[in-house]
Automatic annotation (TrEMBL):
Residues 423-468 are annotated as: Disordered. Residues 252-374 form the HD domain. InterPro entries: Cyclic_di-GMP/3'3'-cGAMP_PDE (IPR052020), HD/PDEase_dom (IPR003607), HD_domain (IPR006674), HD_GYP_dom (IPR037522), HDIG_dom (IPR006675). It comes from Streptomyces laurentii. Pfam families: HD_5 (PF13487). Residues 230-425 form the HD-GYP domain. This is Integral membrane protein. PANTHER family: CYCLIC DI-GMP PHOSPHODIESTERASE TM_0186-RELATED, LIPOPROTEIN.
Length: 468
C-alpha cells in the first residue's frame, strides 16, 4: 500500500503536469466497467439478495482499460486510473476494507510497472504512443505493448504469490506455481485490446471510438460468466450429494469436507497442478457418496456388523461410482470414489488392486479418509491426537497406504496444522468403545459403531491389513 501511494504521488503533487483529461475518463470508464461485477442478475450486492452467480467476472475482465492507460499515460497518472474501479469491485470475504485497499494497491503497482516498462521501450521513430502521437508506427509499437503485458503479468504474479506465501504460509514453489503461466495469455489478449483502445483514443475519431473496443471484451466477459455459472452449478451438485450423505449418516457429518481438504493438502505437497487439485478435492468430498445406496439400518447399527452387513458396506464404493458415472466434470475423481478402499498390498476392496494398479487419486483419498476417521470425535469414540493418527498411518505405510502420500500428509500437517471438529450430533451421548480385536479373532471388525467402515484404523490394533 505504501509503494502504491509512492507510485501515484508524482501525479498528485501541486504543479505536476498530469493529463487529467485522459486520466479521469479512463478511471471513470474502468469504474463503470466494474459496476456489473457488483450485481448478480440485476440485484446488487448491497441489496442483500441471494447471489445467483456474477453477471461479469471481477476486475480482470476489463484490464484492457488499464493497459490502454499504461500505453497512453505517464506511469503515475496511469496508475491512478485503477483506483476507483478497484475500490468498487466486490469482495467475497472479510476484512472487506483491507481487501479492497490491497486490491487497489496491487493494481496500482501493476499498472505503474507496465507503464514504466512501456515508457522505457518506445516504438520506432515515435517515442511510444504518448500524448502527441496520433498514428503509431506499426509493427514496432507491438514491442512496448508486449513489454507492457509482460510487466503487468509479472507484477501481479509477484504480489499474488507473495500474499499467498505470507498469509497462507505456502511454500514458494506452491505459492507462485502456475501464476505467471496462467496470466500471460489472457493479459496478452487484453493488451491487444488496450492497444486498439489507445490507438483509437489518439486517432482523429477520438475517445468515443475507443469505447467500441469494449464490445467484444464484454462478450468475452459474458462467456466467462457463463463458465462461472456452470462451475457454480457443479459446486451445487457436489454440495447436494454431500448433504444427502450427511443426512443419511449423521455420525459422519463434516467428514466428507475434511477428507476433501486433507486430500488437497496431500496433492499440493505432491506438486499437483491447480486443475488436478480441484479434481482431487471432488474425489475427497464425494468418496462416501455410495453410502446413499447402503440401508440405513446397516449404517446406524449399534454393535458389530455381521459378515453379510459387512459385505453390504463394502459395496458403497461401487454404488458411489455408479451414482457419479454420468457426471462428466468429475473426471478422474470417479476412479478415486471406486478405489479409495483398495490397499497397497492387495487386501482392500472392491477389486483387490495392488500398488500402482490403484489410481493415484484413490491413494491420496485413502490416506486422507483414514486420517480424518482417526482424528474425528464421533458418538461412539473420541478423537485420537494428530500425532497418534500420523503414527498409525506411518505404521501402515507400504502395506495399506502409499508411503509417498503418507509422507506428503505429514509435511502438510507440519506446515498447516489440522483443525478437527465434532462430526456427530451435539446431543448424542458418547457410547463406550469396545475393546480392540486381537490377532486371534478370525474376522475382526475395525470399529463397532454406527458409521464404521471396513478398514478404518483402530487405536492399539494390529496393522489393518493383518486383521482382515
Amino acid at each position: 500500500m505504501l509503494a502504491a501511494g509512492a507510485a501515484v504521488l508524482p501525479a498528485l503533487r501541486p504543479g505536476s503536469v498530469t493529463p487529467w483529461t485522459t486520466v479521469l475518463p479512463l478511471a471513470a470508464l474502468y469504474a463503470v466497467c466494474e459496476l456489473p461485477a457488483r450485481c448478480t442478475w440485476g440485484r446488487c450486492a448491497s441489496d442483500g439478495g441471494e447471489a445467483r452467480g456474477p453477471a461479469f467476472p471481477g476486475a480482470g475482465s476489463f484490464f484492457p482499460v488499464l493497459l490502454a492507460a499504461a500505453l497512453l499515460l505517464p506511469p503515475s497518472a496511469a496508475a491512478l486510473t485503477a483506483v476507483p474501479g478497484a475500490l468498487l469491485a466486490p469482495v467475497d470475504a472479510p476484512p472487506v476494507t483491507l481487501r479492497r485497499v490491497w486490491r487497489a494497491a496491487r493494481l496500482v503497482l501493476a499498472v505503474w510497472a507496465a507503464a514504466r516498462v512501456g515508457q522505457v521501450l518506445p516504438c520506432h521513430d515515435a517515442g511510444g504512443l504518448g500524448n502527441s502521437l496520433v498514428v503509431p508506427d506499426f509493427p514496432y509499437v507491438l514491442l512496448p505493448a508486449g513489454a507492457t503485458a509482460l510487466a503487468f503479468s509479472l507484477a501481479l504474479t509477484v504480489l499474488d504469490g507473495g500474499i499467498r506465501a505470507t498469509v497462507d504460509q505456502l511454500p514458494p514453489h506452491a505459492a507462485w506455481r502456475g501464476l505467471l503461466g496462467r496470466s500471460l495469455a489472457p493479459h496478452a489478449v487484453h493488451t491487444l485490446a488496450g492497444l486498439m483502445m489507445a490507438v483509437l483514443w489518439r486517432s482523429s475519431y477520438g475517445p468515443v471510438a475507443a469505447l467500441f473496443v469494449l464490445l467484444p471484451v464484454s462478450v468475452s466477459c459474458w462467456a466467462f460468466a457463463q463458465y462461472h455459472r456452470e462451475r457454480a452449478a457443479h459446486q451445487a451438485t457436489i454440495r447436494a450429494l454431500v448433504q444427502a450423505v450427511d443426512i443419511k449418516d449423521s455420525y459422519t457429518r463434516g467428514h466428507s469436507e475434511r477428507v476433501g481438504r486433507a486430500s488437497v493438502l496431500i496433492a499440493e505437497e505432491l506438486g499437483m497442478p491447480e486443475p488436478r487439485l480441484e479434481v482431487v478435492r471432488f474425489a475427497g468430498v464425494l468418496h462416501d457418496v455410495g453410502k446413499l445406496g447402503v440401508p440405513t439400518r446397516v449404517l446406524s447399527k449399534d454393535g458389530p456388523l455381521t459378515p453379510e452387513e459387512r459385505r453390504i458396506i463394502e459395496l458403497h464404493p461401487e454404488y458411489g461410482h455408479e451414482m457419479v458415472r454420468g457426471i462428466g466434470f468429475l473426471g478422474e475423481a470417479r476412479s478415486a470414489i471406486l478405489h479409495h478402499h483398495e490397499h497397497l498390498d492387495g487386501s482392500g476392496y472392491p477389486y483387490g488392486l495392488k500398488g500402482e494398479q490403484i489410481p493415484e487419486y484413490a491413494r491420496v483419498v485413502a490416506v486422507a479418509d483414514a486420517f480424518d476417521a482417526m482424528t474425528s470425535t464421533r458418538s461412539y469414540s473420541r478423537a485420537r491426537p494428530v500425532e497418534a493418527a500420523v503414527a498409525e498411518l506411518e505404521r501402515c505405510a507400504g502395506t495399506q497406504f502409499d508411503p509417498r502420500m503418507v509422507a506428503a500428509l505429514v509435511r502438510a500437517l507440519a506446515r498447516h496444522g489440522w483443525q478437527t471438529e465434532v462430526t456427530a450430533d451435539e446431543t448424542a451421548v458418547p457410547a463406550p468403545r469396545p475393546p480392540a480385536p486381537s490377532l486371534s479373532d478370525p474376522v475382526a471388525e475395525p470399529v463397532s459403531g454406527p458409521s464404521s467402515e471396513p478398514g478404518d484404523p483402530v487405536p492399539g490394533a494390529a496393522p489393518l491389513q493383518e486383521r482382515t
